[in-house]
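Hi R.,

Quick one: here's the Protein HEAT INTOLERANT 4-like sequence you asked about.
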Amino acid sequence: MKRRGAKRKQRDELQSSSQQEQPPTENHEPPAKTAASSRAKRAKAAKPEPEPEYIEDQRNLEDLWKKTFPVGTEWDQLDAVYQFKWDFTNLENAFEEDGKLHGKTVYLFGCTEPQLVSFKGESKIIYIPVVVAVVSPFPPSDKIGIKSVQRESEEIVPMKQMKMDWVPYIPLENRESQVDRLKSQIFILSCTQRRAALKHLKIERIKKYEYCLPYFYHPFKEDELEQKTEVQIIFPAEPAPVFCEFDWELDELEEFTDKLIEEDQLAKDQKDAFKDFVKEKVREAKRANREAREARKKAREELNEETKSAFENMKFYKFYPGQTPDSPDVSNTKSPFINRYYGKAHEVL
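And here's the predicted structure, written out as tokens:
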């Protein structure tokens, strides 16, 4: 058996002989530097190249639903509306060939519907964005209704009074073009009131935005107010006012009043005054219904045939967001009801 020292000596002699046979190179670098450079090159070569980042192209109508102002939504809830990545490709597809809105003049407005829904195992109230599409050759209305449970009276005011108006929507591919050269067929209800400026407004003015409803007057359909037979009663009694609802077709006034007395809601000595008060409210309501019917009849008579045809063929479509991993499933919350002015949608999508 050979000794290890002999092997080492023999190996060293071979390495020395090999180095002596190699010809000298020009610009020879010191051995230490060459070794370090080789190690750096090997390390650089071993580093994996990063995968190219994939950026999805924006769809042509991708921000359409966001551009529509969510009328009637509380200002402090707007951020909650946009916290999810809602998917409105159903709205976008409606403008494609064979879609329900393809090639038509359409007016869009937004709203929100607070609903209790489950998302990622947690149930909570979520403000669901909804977009209503009105197919019409002209704007369905230039007014806004302001009404809430807290407000006794209803206001119908011009949109511009609330800094709202119908404006053309420009698809992404056309935003470099001059707007006046585009023949837009999509109009959205927009609001120019800046959130940052709300601090300068009175509380009453801010609250008005929360009570806004897109207004619509159909000359060929009776408004629900014209069909109502109930009146809200707020009788100024002592020690506390009497709140109730009286239906002049279903309720008999004498029995109605006696029941309030039995339930200690009305004093006996105020019975006659209460009955007179209710009769006056009923007369006012009937007069308002009659005037509304007459105004509707007059409006119909003044319409030309083209406008009449437009109203008769007007369609309302209500769009809800589709389900995605990034947003709650709202399929069980869909409703055709739009608001008290528009009534129900012809189709829910």
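Residues 1-10, 16-21, 23-30 have pLDDT under 50 and may be disordered.

Cheers,
M.
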